[in-house]
Amino acid sequence: MIAKDLERRIGRGLDGLARGVALIGGIILVALASLTLVSVIGRKINSGGFRAISGDYELVEMGCAIAIFAFLPLCHLRRGHVTVDIFTNRLPAIVQRGLILVGDILVAIVAFVVMWRLYLGVGEKFPYFSQDWRDALSMGYKPFFPETTYELAMPIWIPMAIALVGAVLFCVVALYCVWRDLNDLPGQEGAQ
Q: Taking the C-alpha atoms of 95, 100, 106 and 112 in order, what is their torsion angle to the nearest 10 degrees?
């Protein structure tokens, strides 16, 4: 019973955190839609001080990536991923729970790999720290020059690092979902 109560408390905390991060992702998407609208109107008018916003494509590209990583934790926590359950609805409940567990384990593996590779990508683009620190943090070699976007000259590592926050939370949520599934297996009620 103690493990189940702990799981519920952690779940509530993760739910609140995931909702907050998803809300930030939603605000980013609304801002990007507004930016796109203003830029399109500016392209059409193109006079009297109205013109397209410089770097709008770059901002939309980076903002959408950040928003996607902001939505992943809440989506997975609430089981919002697309499922095809025409076949599985006819299976016994124990088999359905087992399939959910296997699916959540696979999502946790994928979440970890995505987080790990994104971390390495940030390290590859991040131009700071001494080589000793970079080696200790597994960040690879320092780039000769910081890679930036073409139009705005924004360092690439900044949006990648922001997206990494969502990827880390996604990985934590995926591991929590596996734990939740294990606690929901039959026979676990009496063992706690």
A: -150
* CA dist., res. 102 & res. 96, Å (int): 10
Question: pLDDT tens, 100-145?
Answer: 999 999 999 999 999 999 999 999 999 888 889 889 988 888 888 8
- H helices present in 46-156, as ranges: 56-77, 93-125, 131-136
| Nearest-angstrom CA–CA distance, 15 and 43 | 41
Structure tokens at 131: 């080589």
Tens of pLDDT, residue by residue over 148-175, are 999 999 999 999 999 999 999 999 999 9
Going by C-beta distance under 8 Å and a sequence separation of 6 or more, which residues neighbour residue 175? 108
Query: What string of DSSP letters covers 62-81?
Result: HHHHHHHHHHHHHHHHTT-S
- Whether this prediction's pTM lies above 0.85 is answered by yes
Q: What are the structure tokens assigned to 41, written together? A: 């109107």
Query: What does the block give as tokens for 158?
Result: 């900044």
- Name which of 58, 162, 72, 156 is nearest 110 in CA terms: 72
Would the CA dihedral through 177, 178, 182, 183 be positive or negative?
Answer: negative
Distance CA 57, CA 35 (A): 10
- Residue 148, helix vs strand vs coil: strand
